[in-house]
Design brief:
Elements: E1 16-20, E2 41-42, E3 45-46, H1 47-57, E4 62-67, H2 72-77, H3 82-90, H4 94-104, E5 108-113, H5 120-125, H6 128-131, E6 136-139, E7 143-146, H7 151-162, E8 165-171, E9 181-189, E10 192-200, E11 211-219, H8 223-229, H9 240-250, E12 253-257, E13 261-264, H10 268-281, H11 286-305
Helix pairs in contact: 3-4, 10-11
The structure holds uridine 5'-triphosphate.
């Protein structure tokens, strides 16, 4: 299949986002025993709201959550909470009331249950009947990416230009390639690769690139056929990476090196640094967070010297 380098008037618009939230979040235990990691805060906003707002700003009209056991709080967060609203109203807390209501009015949400956590590929496949025959984005709420325009907007622009599936990529240091799916392929324009295959968690030095696939994808509906045909791996999971490699081989797949700063909040250190970074960017908190950090660094330097 050809890569079109011009606007494709025949493509269907990207209207739907699939957000898989059925994972167990074992890297963040014990908090994830009772709290879905997607509801953990980025300062005072749950991570899931940050990515849903990213979808809204990118023009997405419908979000499909792939949920699992214990994840009901995510749906509740985007629903009305009449009791809370009434109390806020009675107490004259207008600003808080508006903030709370705005979340329920953000976007239409649909939930599909993934009854067993059989992997990211399986989670995406669960969305098939709701997505139907349209291109769609997959947004992993573990990956918070601050950029202007957002990565989802950037992916939609690439899709509109080339008419093919797109995965977001980011260069990672050699010693970290074994934590990611790494693309191989040819660079044909600035920030763009034609993906040949994706190698899952390679040994350092074993792949020609160090471009890791990050949690934003724009997929054509054909991906569902590849996912359906796919055998589970040795751990019993259906991996999205394998279906993407097949899509790249049999159709086409673009690797797009996005601009933006990414935090992996599914990991303890990533969760902490995301909160520091987002806190520093907040006009109401930034200066105080910065002076706290400066004080801590000065204390650490002093301790090292003595
Ligand atoms: P992860 O690989 O981060 O897995 O999933 P996890 O279970 O959430 O977390 P750890 O590794 O045990 O700490 C990537 C994304 O795919 C979703 C997760 O919710 C997360 O958004 N996922 C994963 C599912 O929806 N279903 C699955 O079966 C697996």
């Amino acid at each position: 299949m050809e890569f079109r380098d011009k606007r494709n008037p025949n493509h269907k618009p990207v209207r739907k986002a699939v957000i898989p939230v059925a994972g167990l979040g074992t890297r963040l235990l014990p908090i994830t025993k009772s709290v879905p990691k997607e509801l953990l805060p980025v300062v005072d906003v749950p991570a899931i709201q940050v990515v849903v707002e990213e979808c809204v700003h990118a023009g997405i009209e419908e979000v499909i959550f792939i949920t699992g056991r214990g994840k009901g709080g995510i749906e509740d967060h985007f629903d009305y909470n009449f009791e809370l609203e009434k109390i806020l109203e009675q107490r004259g807390k207008t600003e808080e009331l508006e903030r709370v209501r705005a979340i329920s009015q953000l976007i239409r949400t649909i939930s599909v249950r993934q009854k067993k956590p059989l992997g990211l590929g399986h989670a995406v496949l669960c969305a098939r009947d709701v997505v139907e025959d349209e291109p769609f984005v997959v947004v992993l709420p573990d990956d918070l990416i601050s950029s202007e325009p957002s990565v989802t907007t950037q992916l939609i622009e690439v899709y509109e230009k080339y008419g093919q599936g797109v995965v977001s990529t980011m260069p990672v240091p050699d010693e970290e390639v074994s934590r990611y799916g790494i693309i191989t392929g040819e660079n044909w324009a600035p920030s763009l690769h034609r993906v040949r295959t994706i190698v899952e968690k390679p040994e350092p030095g074993m792949t020609p690139s160090n471009l890791a696939v990050i949690g934003r994808y724009l997929l054509p509906p054909e991906i569902f056929d590849f996912l359906e045909d796919q055998e589970p791996d040795e751990s019993g999971e259906i991996q999205l990476t394998d279906a993407l490699s097949k899509l790249a081989r049999e159709r086409a797949l673009v690797g797009y090196e996005f601009t933006g700063r990414r935090h992996d909040i599914g990991d303890k250190l990533g969760f902490l640094t995301a909160n520091i970074a987002y806190g520093l960017n907040r006009p109401d908190l930034g200066p105080e967070v910065l002076s706290y950090l400066r004080k801590k660094v000065a204390e650490a330097d002093e301790a090292e010297e003595s």
